[in-house]
Amino acid sequence: MAPLQTEKAGEPLSTGSRWLRLSPHLKTRRPSPRVLMIAITNPPYNLLDGNVLSELKRVLLALRPTATGAVILTSDVPEIFLSHYSVQEILDFSSLVPFPVSAGVVRGLLAWESWSAYFGFRGLTRRTPLAPLAHLNLYHEVTHLLRSIPQITIASLNGRAFGGGCELALACDFRVMIGSLAEGEEDNIAAISRGIGQPEIALGLIPGGGGTQMLTRLLGPAKALDLCLSGRLISAKEALQLGLLNQVVKDQKELNEVTIEMAKSMARRNPTAIQCIKDSIHVGGSQSLADGMRREQGNFGEACLGPEAGYAMSTYLKNIDKFLGTGEDAKPEEYYSPLVNGTFIDMTPGGAARQNKRKKT
User: Fold this and answer.
1) How far apart are CA 93 and CA 112, in angstroms?
2) Residues 204-218: what's their mean pLDDT?
3) Which of 107, 143, 304, 346 is the most buried (most CB within 10 A)?
4) Which residue ranges make up each domain of the chain?
5) Among 320, 309, 299, which residue's Cα sits nearest to residue 352?
6) Which Gene Ontology biological process is one annotated for this entry (predicted)?
7) For the chain, the helix, strand and coil percentages under 3-state DSSP, each to the nearest 5
8) How many angstroms separate the CA atoms of 132 and 49, rounded?
9) Are 78 and 24 in contact (CB under 8 A)?
10) Could you tell me which residues come within 8 angstroms of residue 26 by beta carbon, excluding any fewer than 6 positions away?
11) Of 95, 96, 91, 88, which is closest to residue 113 (Cα–Cα)?
């Protein structure tokens, strides 16, 4: 599948507020100029598979912060975000070798596939019995992109997110899910069936798209072991209590409203700062404290040397009495809100130049 044309300022990947079929399994629309919604459509169960991952990767690689500041990842299938990864593809993977092999051998095969993909052979590999190797690598490449691109990523969970669906959501910066916070909801079978979890162990498997690693970092080893070893599925209410979700909403209408407003606000942020924060947390947080601190220092320097950050700091200093003062000039209630919601100054790429130009005219 050929790469998509890279975005440019004024030439976004998808335009218009109506859904556009971008590829066989993806639809896109723009509820706001700098917000891109991506809906996965693979009915009836909305299974994640190699084709969906390949199409997602093409879209994520084409994004540029000049055109897109936030991405909402959702589903086009009612009441289902992603049921799980395609079990048929996993079975095909297990059929590659007719006898047990060690994890080290599998890692070697995956490294070989990555090397061949680097030289342009993945398309050929995907047409052979070795396709499952390409798909497993694709999965990690997509989740890495979600964790590292300079756009905010929001998983808009309209229904169940089991196995691979949970892992794809975990790779996003924010997760909002439809559910109920009513008393006893965490034990309600209907609510659990629309919930989230990593049930792979029920089929003798383990999470393969980053679930063990992301759950450990997000919830800690004890909760990660609980969810992965028991394979239990949890309701949106319990997921919120654990810290797996950022917010629970009551229905599809509220889900759209909340995620779009969140995306519009976050899309105003400085993309360099977004990328530096994500790198400091996801990469630096996995290093020793000393190495993580050095990584944060480097990222801090990169962010503060950008023109938009410089312009924002200068503007803030000119108005510091209105933020921090106690006299007649102090207007914290008037100035804090724009600072928090991103309207204080234009932090999008080229914002400093545009504001300086307006000052001169």
Assistant:
1) 15
2) 96
3) 143
4) 20-266, 271-360
5) 309
6) fatty acid beta-oxidation
7) 50, 15, 35
8) 10
9) no
10) 38, 39, 40, 41, 52, 55, 56, 59
11) 96
DSSP designation for 8: B
- CATH superfamily, domain at 20-266: 2-enoyl-CoA Hydratase; Chain A, domain 1 (3.90.226.10)
pTM, rounded to two decimals: 0.93
For 222-240, give the DSSP string: HHHHHHHHH--EE-HHHHH
Q: Is 147 helix (H, G, I), strand (E, B) or coil?
A: helix
Backbone φ and ψ for 259, nearest 5 degrees, come out as -70, -35
Give the per-residue pLDDT at 300: 96
Q: Is the dihedral of CA 146, 1, 27, 89 positive or negative?
A: negative
pLDDT of residue 255: 98
Half-sphere exposure at residue 285, Cβ-oriented, CA atoms within 13 angstroms: 14
- Residue 28, both tokens: 């896109």
The Cα 137–Cα 108 span in angstroms is 12
Q: Nearest to residue 276, comparing CAs of 311, 308, 300?
A: 300
Q: What is the mean pLDDT of residues 145-170?
A: 97
Output the six-digit token pair for 265: 């606000």
b/e 227-262 (16+ beta carbons within 10 angstroms → b): bbeebbbbbbbbbbebebbbbbbeeeeebbebbbeb
What tokens appear for 207 in the block?
């999470």
